[in-house]
Every structure is written in structure tokens, then in C-alpha cells.
Task: structure prediction
Amino acid sequence: MIKVLFADDHEMVRIGVSAYLSAQPDINVIAEAEDGGVAVKLALELKPDIILMDLVMKKMDGIEATKKIIESWPEARIIIVTSFLDDDKVYPALEAGAASYMLKTSKANEIADAIRATFLGQTILEPEVTGKIMTKMRQKQQTHLHDQLTERELEILLLIAQGKTNQDIANELFIALKTVKVHVSNILTKLDVQDRTQAVIYAFKHNLVI
Result:
């Protein structure tokens, strides 16, 4: 079972989404939070597999809550589920450490699929979010940090951008999982990014992914 913590300040939204998710055979909503502060407390106490995080909440918003959770628990997998596509929401949320970004207009089964994919280490971004990232990044002067990557590292970066896990990459390239982890670490260092999500953003920014 994938254990989920759902943070949203609208009770009816929590009730509806939680009921649907808990009806899934592989998902269990173990706790709900009505604001970011409660989400941080529950996340660090319960260590759920996935945290669904609203952005606009009272007392503490989702961006601040995401930062605090990631700072104390870097392995946390957080999916932003929001109505907002503003630049001042999208980029700070991803930079704070969110693994995926979904809209509340998504269908319930799409949220469930995003939970499963993120649980497996994939990054799920709404098409609108991907489009905004690509548009913004193309407007900036490119630094081409990826020129430092070896052919193998570039190959692995493209597979990461396709949502492949380390094990998937090891299987596809017929190399040891340990070797993949070393390559991923080198990629993050050379691209000067914090995690796989930022590496994916970099790949889109530099048109490495079609």
C-alpha cells in the first residue's frame, strides 16, 4: 500500500479526494492536514510514501511546508495539487523540492496515477507546467553545463527525463544499479542541481528532451 498524507485547507476537497484514493487497492490515505504547519508535523511523524500538498493554505502555505519537510526529510516525495499556474507558485514549489505538480482540474484517476508514478521515482508535471518551464528557460541565456556530461551521463539524463527510475535505467542499459547511482550523482553535480526533478527541468530548459 502507498501511504498518503493529504494537505488541503478545503474540507470537502479532502473528503472527496481521500475517499476516492482510499478506495484504490494500492493507496491508503493515512492522514489529512488542514494547513501547512499540520502537514509538516504529520509528515515528519508518519513518514508517508507520498504527500499531496495544496499551495494556498492558512497559517503556512504549501511552498513553505514543502521547504520545511524537505529540509528535515530530503527523501520525502511531495506532489503539489493546486489550482494555480502562476510563476510565483510553480517555480518556488519545484525549487522547494516538490517531486510532481498537478492541477486540481485533473481527474481523480490522474491524481491516483501521479501518486503511483511519483512513488516509483518519476516526475509528473502537468503539460501547462512543462510549457511554462520551457518558455521561461528559453528566454534566459543558456550556460550549457550539460557540455560537461559524458555520452553515458547524457543518455542517463534523457532516461531520467522520461521518468525512468534508477532500476529501470540499469535494466535498459544493462549496467549495475550502483553504477547508475554514481552516474546520477555526477549528473547532478555537473549540472549544479539539487535533485532529479531539477535535472529534468534543466533537460527541458536546454531542449534536451523533445
Remarks:
- Residues 177-191 form the longest helix (15 residues).
- The first strand starts at residue 2 and ends at 7.
- The chain is about 55% helix and 10% strand.
